[in-house]
Design goal:
The chain is mainly alpha-helical and 223 residues long. The protein has two domains: 96 residues, Orthogonal Bundle (DNA polymerase, domain 1); 100 residues, no CATH class. 52% of the residues lie in helices and 4% in strands. It has eleven helices and two strands. Strands 1-2 form a two-stranded antiparallel ribbon. Strand 1 and strand 2 form a beta hairpin. It is elongated.
Amino acid sequence: MESKKVYEFKEVNISLVEGLPDELAHFSKRVSVMYSSFSTVKTYRRALRDISLYHGCLADGLEVDEILDYLHHLKEKGLSWAKIKLDVAGLKHYYRNVLNDESRASSIPYPKEEKSLPKILSIKELVQLFDGASNPKHRLIMRLIYGSGLRRSELIYLRIEDVETDDGMNIRQLQQILGHTSIQTTMIYLHVNLNEEKGKKNELKNRKAKWFQCKRGSFVWSL
């Protein structure tokens, strides 16, 4: 019996499996049509890449038992259930939406969720974490993500008008109430200056943490 070819899960090895580069390109296009998130396309593509490298062949000819062998391999490597869940989602999408094989897609089980208590950082640890970012913009990004629970994609598209003022009123609402045609006028009226943090590095170190409220209702540290 011919031994199975197993390649490392690296991008450089995709050319070792005949037809894999073209299959990955085709799959990525199909996923991008249904999902706008780049991370989803990347994650699903990686799942198809890795199972193909593990078996040394394209995934379209794999039996259900061979798919389960790959998932078992991931578990034996100590990967988290969350990572395996993403692989399962990618493979289900491949078999269901690319190969139109509902039978194989339905036969791939999701891993059982492993519940664990969240790790809570102390105030001292948080200060050390945030002070590690010397750039004020980077420090604000870290505090926003930690304090509000924003996803990376949500943070990227966050705008100044999404942040509430001290009295809980949205800047866009204030613009309507004040009758300003431009949001910039309202920002000037409220003395909001996006560049005011420049040149305040020494002041920032001595300032105590101040809290402001985000649209989600969470409280986060401002600079």
